UniProtKB/TrEMBL annotation:
Keyword Nuclease: yes
Reactions listed under catalytic activity: Endonucleolytic cleavage to 5'-phosphomonoester
Cofactor(s) this protein requires: Mg(2+)
A UniProt-annotated Pfam family: RNase_H
Keywords: Endonuclease, Hydrolase, Magnesium, Metal-binding, Nuclease, Plasmid
UniProt GO molecular function: metal ion binding; nucleic acid binding; RNA-DNA hybrid ribonuclease activity
Ranges of residues in domain RNase H type-1: 61-198
Record-listed E.C. numbers: 3.1.26.4
Family: Belongs to the RNase H family.
BP term (GO), one: DNA replication, removal of RNA primer
Organism for this UniProt entry: Butyrivibrio proteoclasticus (strain ATCC 51982 / DSM 14932 / B316) (Clostridium proteoclasticum)
General function of this protein: Endonuclease that specifically degrades the RNA of RNA-DNA hybrids.
Protein name: Ribonuclease H
Length: 219
């Protein structure tokens, strides 16, 4: 089986048949594409590396820049938000944000997207050229790689946003983590996402402080 990687074309991504790939590059000025025997090689060609087997072991003892992100939604206020942090050169950069526009119809998924975008933008601002991005919602990776079709305006914009940074030279390694699986980084960003949408409970605040200590994050 071959994997067809489209780095520059109508819809960049990875395709499993030539005809679909051809539709993305035929007549497109400066199209860049190539076939590979493995999906990993194809992902590297377009600036992505996938690792779906995340463990509880953290990268904080290494020089590998990484980020954890998560999303949340408050049904009472109809506000979505994100929580996250990025680790780089011994420092933690907390990531939070919220919104209430029409994209809030996607509920917590809108928050997941916001978190990923903020983490990537933070990495770019720090002039990082490679980032491990830990997430628990599959679309964060699958919309970018083309495994999932972007069926609405916001998922299309998300893919375009991420591709912009990849095309500029940022290599992103997507790492899937199972939600609520005891991984400290994932648990912390889950609580931070709740805070960003106004879910402020003492239990959540206490858990945030406990998880920060576990990760070695100094407030």
């Amino acid at each position: 089986m071959k994997y067809y990687a489209v780095k520059t074309g109508k819809t960049p991504g990875i395709y499993e048949d030539w005809e679909t790939c051809k539709e993305q590059v035929e007549g497109y000025p400066g199209a860049k594409y190539k076939s590979f025997k493995t999906k990993e090689e194809a992902e590297r060609f377009i600036g992505l590396v996938s690792n779906t087997n995340a463990s509880s072991k953290q990268d904080s003892k290494t020089d590998v820049p990484y980020a954890f992100v998560d999303g949340s939604y408050n049904p009472e206020t109809k506000v979505y938000g994100c929580g996250g942090y990025l680790f780089f050169k011994g420092k933690y950069y907390l990531i939070q944000g919220s919104g209430s526009g029409p994209e809030a119809s996607m509920r917590n998924v809108a928050g997941e997207i916001l978190g990923a975008c903020k983490a990537i933008a933070t990495a770019a601002s720090l002039k990082i050229d490679g980032l491990k991005l830990y997430y628990d919602y599959a679309g964060i990776e699958n919309w970018v790689t083309g495994v999932w079709k972007c069926n609405n305006e916001w998922t299309r914009k998300y893919k375009e946003y991420v591709r912009k940074y990849i095309d500029a030279g940022l290599e992103i390694t997507f790492v899937h983590t199972k939600g609520h699986s005891g991984i400290a980084g994932n648990e912390l960003v889950d609580r931070l996402a709740k805070l960003s949408v106004g879910i402020v409970e003492q239990k959540v605040l206490d858990e945030i402080e406990e998880l920060k200590k576990k990760l070695g994050i100094i407030s």
